[in-house]
Every structure is written in structure tokens, then in C-alpha cells.
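Same chain as my last thread, 444 residues:
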Amino acid sequence: MDVSCQIAGPQNRLFPCLTARKVLGGPDPLDYISMYRNMGCAAQDVQEHWHYVSFGLSDLYGDNRVHEFTGTDGPSGFGFELTFRLKREAGETAPPTWPAELMQGLARYVFQSENTFCSGDHVSWHSPLDNSESRIQHMLLTEDPQMHPIQTPFGAVSFLQIVGVCAEELQASQQWNGQGILELMRGIKVAGGPWLITDMRRGETIFEIDPHLQQERVDQGIETEGSNLSGVSAKCVWDDLSRPPDDEEDSRSICIGSQPRRLSNKDTEQIRETLRKGLEFNSKAALPPISSQKQNHDRAQIRKDSLESESSAAIVPHELVRTRQLESVHLKFNQESGTLLPLCLRGRLLHGRHFTYKSINGDTAITFVSTGVEGAFATEEHPYAAHGPWLQILLTEEFVEQMLGDLHELGSRDESKLPKEYSWPEKKLKISILPDSVFDNPLQ
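reply #2:
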């Protein structure tokens, strides 16, 4: 797959960066990363920058050494490669190498999880991308402005560009959507401009550069469109307060410090589906149905989509796990997960959608659903229902409005104020926001 001709013109110099290729038994998931000095485009007010392109997430060989070759009609490997555009600083004669390490880290996640990225996805990194003191500590993904999808002998390949963003911009993309924030950044040269060039020395967010206009557009987008973020990996657990502690029968056993009941692979896939965007704005939201019917085992295995992809195909478990109605539940989140509860309620449930927290420490999952979501096993009559360690909570619009008023202070990230307790006795629901240490050391 030769992509250099698409981006390297007479003024663009190539700096090859070879890595320990996985096909040769090396530790790096990407085969290599090319680095280009891109002279920009004066006509579009695009500044000079370094352009990085990965090789290896797509199928480079077609011989099943790295990726299963399934024909030319489908995706090549994972179907995409990563790119990154970094502002060239005055006096730099060679590109910095840290973006290559960053791309290897993202590729490692893709190979290990088999989750692909899609345009509009975000990556919560929580650290300066270049290990400096920069405010650019997270990433959004979008289509590369120069490199369009191509068809190779081994399938189709698209090019997803990594865009560095500040924490405030990441939060806005979660509350609204990544593409909306990227569009705002395209209109501000110092924030990226038309080609979304990352400047690690950028000291102001788009909301500080243009405080009123940018926030107004985000608020309007949330109000009219809701959020595209349908789920996150999180530190969370839930307790069934209606079950006696010594009741072992069919216990979901997911309290902190206990041994969890494991989901089947098909049920795990079903939970993964609830983390996908697959909810069209103009149609009724739907969760995959619970069914005891078996899948066609002859169906070809496909790659898992992004947790935030635009597709949503129903996954049918191969075995039936009994669904239980619960009388009272206690939800526990760490602080970062807790700050997303207003997003879940305002940006998702008030727009007739669902939102899922999937525990990073096990099979536990908590899905909030609105009354407009089809296929849920929680109902208005029984709003709390468990399918193994997967809990669904159905909230009416009236209760969502009440919770939003009670949870207004969750934007604070001061750990000294933890734990925080919220309780709605008439609904038999309790939520606790706890320090990370509780989840990291469950037996203490």
C-alpha cells in the first residue's frame, strides 16, 4: 500500500521511521511509521507541520501473517491507519519521535482489544501527549484532510487523524459530539485550523479564545442533538440492596471484593453493543434483544466495531441468563465516572437514548435507559433489572429532571470532598461517588 504519493509533493520531505515490526516478532504493533515535513497550504492558511502516517493496522501482506485476509470487498485488516499532524517549531530540522510512540500505544490497544476507531471518537489520555507540561492531554479522531480512503488489493483503508485537545475540549465532545468540537477547532487557526494541526504549546482552549460563541454553540448542540457518547469504560460497581447479603442463589456477586459471575462471550458482546453510537437521531433507540436463540455458527467472524461507531447490529446470546427484577440498588462510581452522570442524563436519556458504564475491573456493566429505548429488560413497572452482572436502570423523564437538579455539583473534581452520597428513597436508588483507591484496592 503506497500512500506517500498522496501526501509527499515536491516540497514535502520524507523521514522514515522503522520500528521492530510485529511480522518479524518485534514488540511494536505497527510495522513502521512514516514522517513527512509538510509545507502546509498558504491558500488555506495552513501552517507548516510534521505529518505522521502509520503502517500496520491495515493488511500490508495479504498472507494471513498479521491480519486474516477476507477478500478485497471488505476492510483491509482493521480497515484504517492513523495519522497525526504536529506544528513544526522554528529551527526544527527533524520531526520529534514521541508521536510515533503515541501511535504505537493506540495501535497496541486496537490489536489487544480488537476495537477499531472511527471518526468522531475520543481517547481520554490524562497526560500530556509529549510528556511535557502541555495542556494537550487527550485526543479526538477524524478523517485526515488530505488522505482519502483507498482501495488496496487486500481491502479498503481509511486514514484517521489524531487531534490533540485540552481537557475542557474533551469534556465538551463527550457532552455533545467529537465532530462538533472538531468543526469549532477548524475555524480557529491556533486551535488547529482547517487541517487540525496539533500545537503542543497551545495554552488556551477554544472556550478561552472565544468564550461566549463557542460555549453557546456547544450548549445549543447538546440541547438540540444530545450527546453521541453512548458509553464509557469506568470504575464502577453496583449492589442489589433488595437481596440479603447471605443469599447466594443466582447472585450477581459483583460487590467490591467479591468474585464476579462471568458473562458468556455472547453476553459480553451484547454489552459492548450498548457502548456503540448506533442510535440514529431521527429513529427510536434500541438495545439488542435478550434471546435464547442460537447464532448461526457458520457466519464469518468479523472485527469488533469501535465502542463509538455508527453501526448497531443486534447480538443474540447463545445461552439464556435469567433476568431478575430488583427492588433497590446502590450504584458506586469513581469521581471521573461520576462527573459523566449529568451527561448521561441530559445528553442521552432526555433524548430517548441509553448510556452504559462498563467496568474496567471485570464484567460489571450499568446501563441507563429511557422509556424510548426498545429491547431493554428494565421496564417502567420494574425499573431495575439484572442480567448476570449487567444492570439496567430505566429512568422516566420526570425522574431524570429531578436527578439533574440533585447532581448539579458533580462537576467538581476535588477528591477531598469524597465520598459523595445521593439518595432517592422513594425510588429506592442510591448513588455513591468514591475515591479511586476504593476501586483500585477492593479488599481494603
